[in-house]
From TrEMBL:
CDD domains: cupin_MmsR-like_N (cd06986). It comes from the Bacteria. It comes from Mucilaginibacter gossypii. This is AraC-like ligand binding domain-containing protein. Residues 197-295 form the HTH araC/xylS-type domain. The keyword Transcription regulation applies. SMART domains: HTH_ARAC (SM00342). The keyword Transcription regulation applies. Keywords: DNA-binding, Transcription, Transcription regulation. GO terms for molecular function: DNA-binding transcription factor activity; sequence-specific DNA binding.
Amino acid sequence: MNAIAEPKKRIKEGFIGQKMIVLPPNIKKAITSNALIKGFYLTAIGYYPKAAFHDRERRTGSNEYIFLYCVDGEGYVYLGGQGHTLKPNTFFIIPRNVAHRYKSSEINPWSIYWVHFSGLNSHLIYERSLENGQPAVQSVPYDNSRIKLYEQVYAVLEHSYHEKEMEIVNINLLNFISSMVYYKQTNPVDYDNDFVSNSIAYMKKHISQKFEVMHLAKQQGISASHYLRLFKQKTGSSPINYFNLLKIQTSCQYLYFTDRSIKEICSELGFDDPYYFSRLFTKLIGMSPSKYRKTHKR
């Protein structure tokens, strides 16, 4: 990123329409003794709309993680000699105890929701936000329900710091941040435009068929060796083993929801040998098909 010219004035906070709450030391201390939320909790929270000349630098870093979520405008985060640009519907988590600076664009000031958070498990949330082990700007589609959740957290804090209020505040805050950190995992369809995901979708659509690797690779238009490597990298399994697992998962539904015989289920899922099916089922599920039906059948 090119160097950005210094603004005419630097403002840490004090913007029209801003919201900001910093927890008192005694409340933070009480949280660290609360088994329900001591793993992850906020220490400060706020919203800065159109934060012109917002510019904050901490040369020794902060002892808390700092979550920045931009919903409008543009801004920049400088960390470890690298610059990161935040635009609408992007977020960034600044690691604790690392020198940093963040600032709003002078031409197009950002509007940001921000949180300082800590806790015994806070480092795990931070680590889940990394890309290839490095801090990175992440994009997420705008979701008004996410903003409403944030506003609910803020409203409760304005009302009370009592124990139960602090519990629901931090539970909801974890949900708020997780909805972005884990967006890709909770919305796989938005990202599943690759060979492996398309192949798995093909398997599910043709669950009663029997396929060889060559056919599955050809269906995706790539070589068998390349297909095998990609599939193993993404799933940790071979394509045929994965396909068999899908079949066994489907058989569990048949055993639970229907009165079909095991022989009929085998035929439906492309297994010629009921004994092979039973052995595979037992290996993957931990019990035989008949025992599964007896145990789980309504």
